[in-house]
Write a structure and sequence with these properties.
Elements lengths: L1 H31 L6 H5 L3 H5 L21 H4 L3 H6 L14 H8 L16 H4 L4 H4 L14 H5 L3 H4 L17 H4 L31 E2 L34 H4 L6 H5 L10 H4 L5 E2 L10 H4 L14
Antiparallel strand pairs: 1-2
């Protein structure tokens, strides 16, 4: 049994290693493969198309000394050699006429695909039939993204963008943030993480970032069971204040039960307050592990600050 386990582990590691080597080689091979037809030949007829690339991320690098990336017409348009002999729209590769998967394969020869972190190995856009060209324009003076506005993403993500009309929401409709403010597709940030080196929410909400000696586990996915900011906040919009998913104690009790001592000690005084009134440092505390209000004793009616349950230790 142990031998089988070791064999399976070795196989998995080998597959992962091959995948890593393949991903690295894609970039290398794409850049080292010289196109069969040079750009000068293509531009003799398609000069205006070449001009649209001059100020774009896909500007041609022919004749550019020391160019780090080799970008040529034939890099994207296959069949150029045949097309030179018999100019026809039918014998030249045009990504605009290719399938979603074919376009993805072409683009991935240079670009890493937009893999969502919870869909490792799969591009959710391609899986849904959305082509790279649906969002990116290659022949453009502007950045390759067709449109960064929320209304552009909303054409497909209507259910999510409708949430921006709720009572509490991010200022998307005011144009202060866009979908790309949070969904950067680079893999550098993780939407569910509220703190840590790969933060997303705290890039704007710095006051809630900490670090705290006693962080709230739910706000930090590095803790067991932690879900990040979205454990309590609905990022696209909510009917509740502060984007909260629930109101009142219901927000806390979705994870925490009411401690027995709250109901028995001091005539059940612990049940006479909302959770937030006592546990006010909801994102993390500099004072105590229970995230309690530092001046809790005075707040609940003169209870000595040194009491065991309500102290700062």
């Amino acid at each position: 049994m142990a031998k089988q386990t070791r064999t399976k582990s070795t196989t998995i590691l080998a597959v992962l290693a091959c995948a890593s080597i393949w991903a690295t080689s894609q970039w290398t091979n794409a850049q080292e493969t010289a196109p069969a037809v040079d750009d000068e030949t293509c531009l003799a007829c398609h000069e205006t198309m070449g001009a649209t690339l001059d100020k774009s991320p896909h500007r041609l690098t022919s004749g550019v000394e020391g160019a780090r990336v080799n970008v040529a017409c034939a890099s994207c348009h296959e069949g150029a050699a045949v097309h030179i002999e018999d100019p026809s729209v039918e014998n030249i590769g045009n990504p605009a006429r290719q399938s979603t998967q074919a376009v993805a394969n072409l683009c991935e020869s240079c670009h890493r695909a937009h893999r969502e972190l919870d869909n490792i190995g799969f591009d959710p856009h391609v899986e849904s039939g959305v082509s790279c060209l649906d969002c990116h324009a290659v022949h453009s003076h502007e950045p390759a993204l067709v449109d960064q506005a929320t209304r552009f993403c909303g054409k497909c993500h209507a259910a999510l963008t409708s949430q921006f009309g709720r009572t509490s929401t991010h200022p998307v409709n005011d144009g202060q943030v866009t979908c790309l403010s949070c969904h950067d597709f680079t893999g550098k940030r993780q939407p569910a993480i509220g703190a840590g080196p790969q933060e997303n929410c705290i890039s704007c909400h710095t006051a809630q970032a900490g670090p705290f000696p006693w962080p709230h586990e739910a706000a930090n996915s590095y803790f067991p069971g932690g879900e990040g900011c979205v454990a309590c906040h609905s990022p696209h919009g909510s009917a509740n204040d502060r984007l909260l998913t629930r109101t009142g104690d219901g927000l806390c009790t979705q994870c925490h039960g009411v401690p027995a001592l709250h109901q028995t000690q001091h005539s059940g005084i612990g049940t006479q307050f909302a959770c937030i009134e006592c546990h006010s440092d909801v994102h993390g505390s500099d004072h105590n592990q229970a995230l309690l209000e530092p001046d809790l004793g005075a707040k609940i009616g003169g209870t000595p600050a040194s009491c065991y349950c309500h102290g700062t230790n």
